Known about the structure:
The protein is mainly β. The chain has strands spanning 3-6, 9-12, 17-23, 32-38, 45-51, 55-58, 66-71, 76-81, 90-97, 103-105, 109-114.
Amino acid sequence: VQLQASGGGLVQAGGSLSLSCAASRNITTSVYMGWFRQPPGKQRELVAEITSGDSINYADSAKGRFTISRDNSKNTFYLQMDSLGPEDTAVYYCYLQFPSKVASWGQGTQVTVSS
């Protein structure tokens, strides 16, 4: 499966961005989808995820500010990010997994938040 992430960019602190991750196949049967980020000089970290059974989890840093969602009809899932701060600056990656461990990463989209 191929993933195309989009929606990153430059935004001022306090602003919002909406990321999209479009899959090349039907995502209805996926068992996991998530957004991760890698800040400059740091390791990749989980931001938000939807696990099997549609359980949603957020990193503490994302709670109350970010929202993960999916649109099965468009084979796309999203990350709405509000109240952004400079600490949210990172390359954001989407990840999608199907049964039998078929999984893919998106190519990454840069989010830069200026203070």
